Every structure is written in structure tokens, then in C-alpha cells.
Amino acid sequence: MLIKFTEEQQMIRDMAREFTKNEIAPRDKWMDENGFDYDLYHKLADAGFMGINIPQEYGGGGGGAIDTAIIVHEFAKGSASEAAFLDAHWMAADLVLHHGTDAQKKTYLPQAAAGKIFAFGLTEASAGSDAAGIKSTAVKASDGGWLLNGGKAWITNSGVADFYIILAMTNPEKGTNGISAFILPKDAKGLHIGKFEDKMGLRGTATCELAFDNIHLPADALLGAEGAGFKQAMAALDGGRISVAVLAAGLAEHAMKIAKDYANERVAFGKTIGKFQGIQYKFADMSAEIRAMELLAYDTAAMKAAGVRHTLEAAQAKLFAATRCTQICLECQQILGGNGYSREYHVERLVRDAKLFEIGEGTNEILRMLIGGTVLAKK
Ligand SMILES: Cc1cc2nc3c(=O)[nH]c(=O)nc-3n(C[C@H](O)[C@H](O)[C@H](O)COP(=O)(O)OP(=O)(O)OC[C@H]3O[C@@H](n4cnc5c(N)ncnc54)[C@H](O)[C@@H]3O)c2cc1C
Predict the structure, then answer these.
(1) What is the pLDDT of residues 12-24, one digit of tens each?
(2) Which of 79, 106, 256, 264 is spaced 20 to 30 Å from 176 by Cα?
(3) Which ligand 1 atom lies nearest to the CA of residue 361?
(4) Which residues are the active-site residues?
(5) Could you tell me the pTM of the whole model?
């Protein structure tokens, strides 16, 4: 590996690996069938994972981009849902960390570190890829506060979150410079939370529609400068894409491990199927691709940790990891033959989970536009 983990990072990895083995992996099938696992969330919060990204002065672990990547990577080897849950929480809490006033940081970061769940709300039913087209509005109220109207769709952790970071138009005439971010508590009057979405995969994460009916927010609910919300959200997505890349690497490894155990046991034509060259080639390609996913993702995490702009690299890492993860999961399903089609053997669940990563946090098409445009514009 180009990136050498520090001793502390190796400890974080071992702790996350142990937690995944003992607590997360055994619950993944249950979550697929039953939804968000509150017991597991409490264990995860008690173990301190919710605040790893938050500075110690606010009660967190003081971890950086590589530390969080390590944890998401390890969690995803046991459950993509649990890794995605934690990542969505960190991403939203990070917005307070990077753009909040001192008072907002003192109010919200200790709560995020202690286990209150955060969610990041950009997408709406009519605006996903075209994020600048959001219709939710926040209008100044006579008392200096804000009146929030509109709604959001597909927000990870919605329905279980304690706080939402919501992007809304404060000045539609200014386009993306008229979008601002707000901190919305779950008990705000006028916040209506719809039923949980019946999703194809990542069924252990909670996803609902949110409706905002004239919600009154105090003036200090505004996060960062008025009109800065779009830039804040795009920067948050750069970090989120690193997480999706390591998550996809971990998920692909999970699938390959199941396929490997199967290939070493299943007998056909008098041999274990792993002895056939046609099956070995699949493992050659999958293992090389997983290594490439890890290298791209950790290299980009190192850029983020060093404070280097990583918009292009995060998009590349996410595009590569997400597309290959889906294909690897499908290949692993193929290795299991008929059993790959059965819920009992787990790989079919991983196939369903994997697909989301080609859609969320920038679809393949949007990332290709971003990457292609950037590469072509480079001198
Ligand atoms: C399970 C799940 C969890 C999610 N979690 C969150 C979350 O926590 N917070 C949040 O804000 N959002 C979240 N999302 C939303 C997600 O980011 C959007 O679904 C995604 O950005 C795509 O937007 P859309 O669904 O509106 O599709 P659309 O934007 O309508 O796109 C539909 C299709 O058209 C393609 N397309 C669109 N524009 C172009 C173009 N210019 N050129 C070529 N092709 C194009 C897209 O690539 C896609 O294939 C989540 C989504 C899911 C499914």
C-alpha cells in the first residue's frame, strides 16, 4: 500500500474490524428484512463511532479523513447499510464542524459525538442530479428567523435522525448562490416524516420523504453564510464520495469472501470449483479491482486529510469503485450458481446493496460529466 497507516490508524482498523465481526456482520440479514437496527446503533454509539470525526474538544475522537475511511471500509465488509448509516451521519455533522459558528459547534457537535443522529438533506423528489433545481424555500420571518417550506426525498437516516442539515433556496434569483443550509431538529413544528421507503437494497438504512409545512426556524438555524449552502453541499459530497469508494471496496470484498469460501468447497466434475481456471480468472480480476478501489479511495482520503482539493479524484474513486462493486457482486453471485440466487447465501443481498452506490452521491452519468469535463478542460 502506498499509504502506510499510523499505529493509531491500525488500532482504529482493528477496533472497527472486531466490531464488524462481532456486532455488525451478524445483523446485516436481519436489517435487510426488518430495517434500521436501533440496538446496533446504540452499541455503535456506545463504542464511540458516531463522533470519530469530531474534534476532542467537542467530545469526539478527533479523527481525520483516513480514519473515517478505515471505519467505513471495515464496516462495509459486514454491512453496507451500517457503513452508509454512519457515513451519512458524519457527513451531516461535518457540515456543522466546517461551517458552524462557535455557538452552533458547541451546541450540536457534542450531541453528534454522543450519538444523536444527523442527516444530510439536499435531494428533492423533483431535483436529484440537478441539485441546483431544489424547490424548498426558506424565507426571512419578521422576527429575524426563517420560514421553511417544501420537502426532501431519499434522505439517508430520515425518520431516525435527531437533526437534519437541509438545503433550501433563500434567494431563487441568485441560482446556486441563493441556496443556504439550515439545521432542522426532528421535533420542529411543521416537519412531517413520511413512511419508510421500500428499497431494493441498503434496507438497514432509514429513508423517508420529508415535508416542511411553514416550519419556523430561529435565525441561528442558518449554517454558515446565507447563499453559501450549495458550495458547502458540493464540498461535503467530495468527502462523501471517498466514503462511498471505500464502502464499495469493503462490500466487494465481503462478496468475494463468500464466493471464495464457496469456491473452495463446492465440488463439480470431481473437483472444487476453485480449481477450474474459469473460476480462478474471476478471482484474479476481482482481487485486482478491489485493490485498485482501495488505492484510489485511500489516496483521495490522504489528499483530503492534507487539505488538498480532491473533487476530481473523489469522483474518479467513487465512479470506479461503485461500477466495479456492482459487477464483482454479480460475478460472486455467478460463482455460487443456483445458491447465488437464494437469500440464504447472502450474495443476492449484496448485489442489491451495491447498486445504490452507482446512484447516490452523484450517479455514474453525473460523475462522468464532472470527470470528463475536468479532464478536457485541463491544460
Ligand atoms: C437509498 C438512497 C439514499 C440516498 N441518500 C441521500 C441523502 O442522504 N441525501 C441526499 O441529499 N440525497 C440522497 N439520495 C439521493 C441521490 O443522491 C439521488 O437519487 C441521485 O443524486 C440521483 O437523483 P435522482 O434520483 O433525482 O435522479 P435524476 O437526477 O432524475 O436522474 C435520473 C437519471 O438521469 C440521469 N441524468 C440526469 N441528468 C443527466 C445528465 N445531465 N446527463 C446524463 N444523464 C443524466 C441520471 O444519471 C440518472 O440515471 C439517496 C438516494 C437513494 C436511492
Answers:
(1) 999 999 999 999 9
(2) 106
(3) 17
(4) 361
(5) 0.97
